[in-house]
Design a protein that fits this description.
The structure is a single chain. The chain is α/β, with parallel strands linked by helices. It has two domains: 10-183, Rossmann fold, CATH 3.40.50.10170; 184-318, Hypothetical Protein Tm841, Chain: A,domain 3 (2-Layer Sandwich), CATH 3.30.1180.10. 43% of the residues lie in helices and 21% in strands. The chain has 14 helices and 14 strands. It has helices at 12-16, 18-26, 41-47, 73-81, 93-106, 122-136, 152-166, 171-181, 195-199, 205-213, 237-251, 268-279, 296-302, 322-333; strands at 6-8, 30-34, 50-52, 55-58, 61-64, 86-88, 110-114, 142-146, 185-190, 216-222, 228-235, 260-264, 289-293, 307-312. Strand 2, helix 3 (41-47) and strand 3 (50-52) form a beta-alpha-beta unit. The chain is globular. The termini are far apart.
Length: 334
């Protein structure tokens, strides 16, 4: 498997078919995403979306997440395996201002779907820039949406937004649709170890040491705010992968018209195993499966060995706790 996005049983263009062609022909709205959706550059070009590249630093040198144009995924993760420290920083309001101003000058209504605020403050910078652009161009339609989901989950959301744009939905309608649809994307993943999470301050170093000694592998997901959430602890890698498949079986929408995504950080063999297990499920024999590498920005925080399975499923809001349900009702009534 190469470091770029690939598909099984079809191509990216097959996902939306004539809808992409209509989107290119009509071009009634402009769609912007960011590199944390882990698109291959060719895929982003085919879909006709603009990609804002996030910065990252490894071994003291700054790069921009250009979907492996600076180095291959294997090179990046191998450097991490050998002890290199990779760090990231948020996109500045100035960079967003540059992108949004250009969009305003072009005049097309624009939708930006950015990396979840649960993992980065960049979406706040995007909103600040959008407010400044609207002051200068009051008639310009610009919508900024926190996608509430990272990596391949954001990619699945973007693909459907492009398809619906091809069907004639306006930028405002796309924003309203995506604001609800983002809760129907399910994502489950495991890591090879806890070291990178500990280095980034996301878990205590002592917990990482204990997990390593006991061969504990986490199964993780993301919550309604887009933040990482721990679903369970598994003794060994294979049990963690099986836990992911179990969650897939329990939550998959069984709609073969919608693609499934498998993203890995230089761990294609485990991605292959996940794909084979999916193919065993009724109705999944010919479903399009997108294979991609976790980009360097997300990869800086998870390290090599991550395996993620992302798909369209049930409404994740239906599984919130009782206290959260009560809090939501109070908020709505206030």
């Amino acid at each position: 498997m190469s470091s770029s996005s690939e598909t099984s049983s079809g191509s990216i263009m097959d996902l939306a078919g004539d809808d992409i062609e209509r989107f290119h022909a009509r071009r009634t709205c402009h769609i912007i995403v960011d590199s944390c959706a882990d698109f291959d550059p060719d895929v982003a070009c085919q879909l006709g979306v603009e990609v804002i590249e996030f910065p990252y630093v490894i071994d003291g040198v700054e790069y921009f997440d250009g979907s492996w144009k600076s180095m291959t995924a294997h090179e990046f993760y191998d450097r991490m395996r050998k002890g290199a420290r990779a760090t990231t920083s948020a996109v500045t309001p100035g960079r967003y201002l540059e992108v949004f101003t250009k969009a305003a000058q072009n005049g097309l209504p624009t939708l930006y779907m950015g990396l979840t605020g649960g993992l980065s403050s960049s979406i706040d910078a995007a909103r600040q820039a959008a407010a400044m652009v609207k002051e200068q161009y009051p008639d310009f339609e610009l919508y900024v949406l926190d996608n509430l989901c990272p990596s391949a989950a954001a990619e699945l959301l973007s693909i459907e937004v492009v398809r619906l744009a091809g069907n004639g939905l306006s930028a405002r309608e796309l924003y309203d649709w995506a604001r609800d649809a983002r809760y129907f994307i399910q994502g489950y993943f495991t890591l090879d170890n806890f070291d990178t999470l500990a280095a980034g301050g996301r878990i205590p170093p002592a917990a990482a040491q204990v997990g390593g000694k006991l061969d504990i592998k986490p199964e993780l997901s993301y919550d309604l705010n887009g933040s990482l959430t721990l679903r369970g602890m598994c003794r060994g890698r294979k049990k963690a992968l099986r836990a992911i498949i179990k969650d897939f079986k329990e939550n998959y929408s069984h709609d073969s018209a919608l693609p499934i995504a498998i993203a890995t950080s230089d761990s294609e063999k485990d991605g292959d195993w996940i794909e084979k297990e999916i193919r065993k499920e009724p109705g999944c024999e010919d479903v399009v499966i997108i294979r991609s590498q976790i980009g360097p920005v997300i990869g800086s925080h998870v390290g090599p060995g991550m395996v993620a399975l992302v798909f369209w499923g049930g409404d994740r809001r239906e599984k919130i706790s009782l206290t959260d349900r009560i809090a939501r009702k109070i908020k709505k009534s206030s």
